[in-house]
Specification:
The complex is a heterodimer. Chain A contains nine helices and no strands. Chain A is mainly alpha-helical. Classes of the chains: A mainly alpha, B alpha/beta.
Chain lengths: 222, 254
């Protein structure tokens, strides 16, 4: 068998393309939902009712201190045996969102906690209520402060979608595994998938760093 | 007893401590509608704390504080928001919202609190920016403005809620000397238009020129009150005489 023969891999291109789109879909959906969940959890940890605070603290510790593959197995296989059956894609989305939510919660919380007291006082003296102050005055500058850290976490999340192949979500690692198993061209198909991840990661990071200042927190400076 | 009194801001026996440190030791002060009152005094005399009690940013322990006849109750968030619609505040460090344009800084509270339509809010913001001489800056961001411009935006933002009284907490202390004038001019214009103002300041010339009444605070108490003329030309207490001579000396040095 010749080394570095890409013909079999190239023949399987539709699989790689569909895997590529599935990876992009899982990434975008879970990043959006996870960041939202994380921001909500950050609110709870900062200003929420004390019972909810406790629950969120437990959730954050649980998901930050266990491996992602165990979390996704628990959600896909564990919950299925308890009666909550989900498809591989839904289970992947749930697992990714919950995992990211826990990390994003702590990152966003740090950013929001650094809000200068004066800005909150200014908002208070304009008669805004607590929720308005949080959503309108604290969140955007808070996200801006931690944006580079959050972007790193989102890229890590993108890479973690590869774990979803283990529960048969047909993303790009699944495609690579499948093609490698079928053609015995492991080296070639994993080279292709590595290149794909590299491209997605670099592009995704650039996209996020571009999107943040334009659509999420405005052109502000610190 | 009739709780309603003639003053717009009515303060009686106000006491406030931070831990064991008593900052306000029983303040009595009444500020009438359309009156411009300056509060002067050394650092640590309690001026800013008194001002911050009026809109509930500081909680006081005993005494009475009424704004427009309504007692300030810091334990009731709804009452506090109602109070704060009547009491605007301008801060030493501007405290503009950095992620919002100048226009959005001004429109935020009218839209959220008074449910003003976006169109009306925009008209209002433009009108107020013209009033503070910054018509062109509607779409600028705070970090693109000078300190003096930021402070004028902060004044416009406070005016947008159409408050009964505006509290100014050392609003020129963080400014470069050459920018102080533009901010004080705006305040002076407000005073002429009949806006009720309570101003904590170190600008003695400004206090003398603009204020109807000057309050000298010393060690947590109102030590002397009078017209600007009385306070600056014939101070009665040695503390005030000393304070004025020290500040006068500083001004000469500048």
């Amino acid at each position: 068998m010749k080394v570095l023969d890409f013909s079999d891999v190239i023949t399987a291109w539709p699989l790689f393309i569909s895997g590529f789109f599935m990876t992009c879909f899982l990434t975008l959906a879970s990043c959006l939902l996870g960041t939202l969940l994380g921001t909500l959890c950050a609110w709870v940890r900062l200003q929420g009712p004390s019972l909810l605070k406790l629950i969120v603290a437990a959730y954050v510790e649980l998901f930050r201190n266990t491996p992602f593959i165990i979390q996704i197995f628990f959600i896909f296989f564990g919950l299925a045996s308890a009666g909550f059956k989900m498809g591989a894609i839904v289970a992947s989305l749930v697992a990714l969102t919950l995992n990211l939510g826990a990390y994003a919660c702590e990152i966003v919380r740090a950013g929001i906690q650094a809000t200068p007291k004066g800005q909150v006082e200014a908002a208070q003296s304009l008669a805004l209520n607590r929720w308005q102050i949080f959503t309108r005055v604290m969140v955007a500058p808070g996200l801006a402060r931690v944006w580079p850290a959050l972007v790193s976490q989102l890229v890590i999340m993108m890479l973690a979608t590869s774990v979803c192949s283990q529960i048969s979500a047909e993303e790009i690692s699944y495609s690579a595994n499948f093609v490698a198993g079928k053609t015995f061209r492991s080296f070639e198909s994993f080279m292709v998938v590595t290149a794909c991840y590299l491209v997605i990661a670099i592009f995704f990071r650039k996209l996020l760093l571009w999107v943040g200042p334009r659509f999420i927190f405005g052109r502000m400076k610190f | 007893m009739n709780k309603h009194s003639s003053g717009l801001v009515e303060i009686r026996g106000l006491q406030k401590s931070f831990g064991t440190l008593q900052v306000l030791k029983g303040i009595d002060l009444s500020v009438g509608r359309k009156e411009v009152v300056c509060i002067i005094g050394k650092s640590g005399s309690g001026k800013s704390t008194l001002l911050r009690c009026i809109n509930g940013l500081e909680v006081f322990q005993s005494g009475e504080l009424l704004v427009d006849g309504v007692p300030v109750k810091s334990s009731d968030p709804n009452a506090m928001r109602a109070l704060r619609q009547k009491v605007g505040m301008v801060f030493q460090s501007f405290n503009l919202f950095p992620a919002m344009s100048v226009g959005n800084n001004i429109m935020l509270a009218p839209k959220l609190v008074k449910n003003m339509s976006p169109g009306d809010a925009k008209l209002l913001a433009e009108k107020l920016l013209t009033r503070v001489g910054l018509t062109e800056k509607f779409d600028s961001f705070p970090h693109e403005l000078s300190g003096g411009q930021q402070q004028r935006v902060a004044i416009a933002r406070a005016l947008a809620m159409n408050p009964e009284v505006i509290l100014c907490d050392e609003i020129t202390s963080a400014l470069d000397p050459e920018l102080v004038g533009e901010v004080l001019q705006v305040i002076e214009a407000l005073a002429r238009e009949g806006v009720t103002l309570i101003i904590v300041t170190h600008e003695m010339n400004f206090a003398r020129k603009v204020c109807d009444r000057v309050v000298f605070m010393h060690q947590g108490l109102v030590h002397e009150v009078g017209t600007a003329e009385d306070i600056f030309t014939s101070p009665k207490t040695p503390e005030l005489r000393n304070f004025i001579s020290v500040n006068h000396g500083q001004r000469e040095l500048v």
